[in-house]
Design goal:
The chain has helices at residues 24-30, 141-150, 154-173, 189-196, 234-243, 323-335, 381-405, 419-424, 427-432, 450-460, 462-473, 484-492; strands at residues 2-9, 12-19, 49-54, 57-62, 72-75, 101-107, 111-118, 124-131, 180-187, 222-224, 252-257, 261-267, 270-276, 297-303, 308-312, 320-321, 359-361, 367-370, 378-380, 414-418, 444-446, 475-477. By secondary structure, the protein is an alpha/beta fold. The protein has three domains: 2-75, Ubiquitin-like (UB roll) (Roll), CATH 3.10.20.30; 101-244 and 450-482, Nucleotidyltransferase, domain 5; 280-386, no CATH class. The strands form five sheets. A six-stranded mixed sheet has the order 21-20-11-12-13-22, sandwiched between helices. Strands 2-1-5-3-4 form a five-stranded mixed sheet, with helices on one face. Helix 5 (234-243) packs across helix 10 (450-460) and helix 7 (381-405) crosses helix 12.
Length: 505
Amino acid sequence: MEKKLTICFAGGSRTVRAPEGMTLLEILRREKIRVAAPCGGHGACGKCRVILKDANGTRRVLACRTLLREDAELSVDSLQGGVVTQGFLPEPVPTSGRSGLGAAVDLGTTTIAVEIYDLSDGRLIGRQSAWNAQAAYGADVITRIQYTIDRPNGLGELQELVHEQIGDMIRSVGPDPEELQEILICGNTVMQHICAGLDPRGLASAPYAPVSLFTENQTGRILFAPCVASYVGGDITAGLLASGLHRKDGWSLFLDIGTNGEMALGGKDGFLCCAVASGPAFEGVGITCGMAGTEGAVSRVCWDGDGPEFETVGNAQAQGICGSGLIDLLAVLVRRGIVSATGRLLPPDLLPEKYDRLVGEDENGNGIFSLTPDKKIFLSARDVRQLQLAKAAVAAGIRVLLQTAGITADEVDSVVLAGGFGSFLDPAGAAAIGMLPAELEKKTVSLGNTSLSGARAALLDLDRRRELREIQAACRYLDLSSSELFMREYPEQMFFYEEEESEWN
């Protein structure tokens, strides 16, 4: 029997009918109302909380664990725009003799960004960015791969969802998607598989075999950037193209840190590449007060002498902490000895009295550090552990690349941080917690969304498109899943090493 559900979300409301017994998350997915469900709807993350009003009253519930039993009203915080995804580099020179419109697409796990160009003169028609609608199916690619395995038409559902979203984004700029001559898409290997309708299940377990690396000649309107391996995708080859590192002498390190930490070390003579499973902590997922880098997210933290001070995205009231803010906060706590070298967030009885108003305990006696006076935004001992695991994976990956290349961190000439997380990351904080070698702190620059910039360059300039394929061919992949060197480095990089007090504190 069907029941009536009125869904209230940012920008309006909608009344639908759905079968009794369907979960609220399934209904929201069906209605294409974008909500966060990092765990894929398995009740583990607690991020899909909604407000349900029915005959039993008004209460907050998990959408993935609540069945529709009677007519009801649902209030949900839907994922909207405001994603920081704009590219940065000098505009490429369009290849002469072309006409019509084309689209450059950065297909991220978390966000999607689209730019529409006139292919004849390189003129920007418009751009749009949004949360990836697949966020309701899991925060990471493994969860989404599992969805394609668990559901008979799971791959088709996710492919249709991303095609529809990209189409809607193009229409919001102006043209009909069918009018475009080319759509060039750069994303990680899994996201490109899903978008192309290729079975991604081989990427979920050893030997991590992709159906395609998109290196073959592609025909048709929709084109994909070439990938290096299962977890070094087209977003990285596009990023290397945009950064220009493939033309530089010496050694440069390229880092795109998110749910997967993808990195490349090299220059004009080629690159060593690898990927680490850093997890979604740097994107705020799995962190008690974590959130993405949108308005209201704490993105900068420092110590002013009396306690922590912070900045938020858009200078709005603090709503949570995004990845860069988490790194800064953790660096503050390590430098002040509130987090020990082993990663323990110390309880009040082990700290000086001056920290009493900031540090508390949960019901299990574990430490909690409050960032705001009302104690609504805080970092827990469990959160520190998640960040510790993530930073150790990145640090170990960097050290494996350096050791494999036979060089030290001192010999690295430059470091490029890519992606939304890299746009906000303070290298000093990253070095303070040991995620970056200290020798690289002063050599590090953030270049923003290099995937989108590379997609733009390859869309407009056919010579740059050939360069993209040459970069892919010049990359050598290190599989860390079977690397003894990585297995030795990873536990070593779990530690934090407190530094002496400095002006930064």
